[in-house]
Amino acid sequence: MGRKLLEVHNLVIDYYTLTGVIHAVRGVDLDLYEGEALCIVGESGCGKSTLGSALALILPPNAVIKNGSIIYNGIDLLKSGRDVVEKIRGREISMIFQDPLATFSPLHTVGEILEDIAIQKLGMAREEARRTAIEIIKSVRIADVERIMKSYPHELSGGMLQRIAIAAALLVKPRILIADEPTTMLDATIQLQILNLLEEVRKISSISLVLITHNINVARRMCEKVVVMYAGKIVEEGDTEKVLVEPLHPYTQLLLKAIPRAPHRIAKVVHIVGEIPDPRNEIVGCPFANRCPKVLDKCFKEIGYATIDKHKVLCNLYLK
To answer: Does the structure show a pLDDT above 80 at 265?
Structure first.
């Protein structure tokens, strides 16, 4: 593993909406190393996509970072000027989104989109940008490049368009690639192809990957390290196999039991009772306390992290 490339300290993010303030991320600490693949997993609404957008510096206007720091390559991005941020956003830190069709303008061809990225982010002339666009399309295993260059996004299949989204993210040669549920909207066969492509790209380019997913099996296959989020907090973190084979936090344990396994007659799916806390409410103590089968009285009042053999867990069961 290389040196530390990205550091997040006590990050707090709120959304201001018509129904109130949504507390999306509640004090997250995170490290990413050069060449590392990190998965962020959890149920819908746990804050993982908001965290990914914050790392990519593309939070929406109604999102406010209330506290914390995001330090990239020694630069505190939240304290940096706009000129510094613009040099890094979409260039050194790039992102792939869940819906590839929503990623691109419907008014421009794939070729025009990729060429414009090369011109704006890399300062290339139009002809050089065209050559670069053609090469990056070839690199994501797409044939008939000339036809694809002339196609509009809506004329391509979901799988093909997701390949173009990967090509667009890689065109700028980023050091960090953030992929937010990149296979969710694709069928199983295409999902596998996209995961294979991401794996191949990562090995060839030596980039750091942050993969956001609700799929535990994808995390196991793609990443060396996994963090589990719940109600805006990281509740467990460690080496992927360690966390998924020997989970410490009651939420992670139940999350793994909730995954359907074959044959169903032998492995019964266990549903997690209760609901995620209302994100508009402040949380005192453990965010999982109201659903936890191992809850202690003090869990409703206080909570802290314990580290066991490099395995970090937010749980009073492991605090002395």
So the answer is: no
Q: At what angle do helices 110-122 and 126-139 cross, to 10 degrees?
A: 110
Ranges of H-type helices in 152-187:
158-171
Residues 209-232, mean pLDDT to the nearest whole number: 93
Domain count, the chain: 2
Residues 223-254 have pLDDT tens digits of: 999 999 999 999 999 999 999 999 999 999 99
Tokens 């980023």 -> residue: 174
Residues 211 and 117 in one domain: no
For the entire predicted model, the pTM comes to 0.91
Q: Tell me the residue range of the domain where 196 lies.
A: 4-92+172-318
- 310 conformational bin, left if phi > 0, alpha if psi -120 to 50, beta if neither: left
Pair 119, 77 in one domain: no
Cα 78–Cα 82–Cα 85 angle in degrees, nearest 5: 60
Boundary of a domain, candidates 115, 136, 171: 171
d(CA 124, CA 201): 23
From residue 187, give the alpha-carbon distance in Å to each of 7, 8, 179.
35, 34, 17
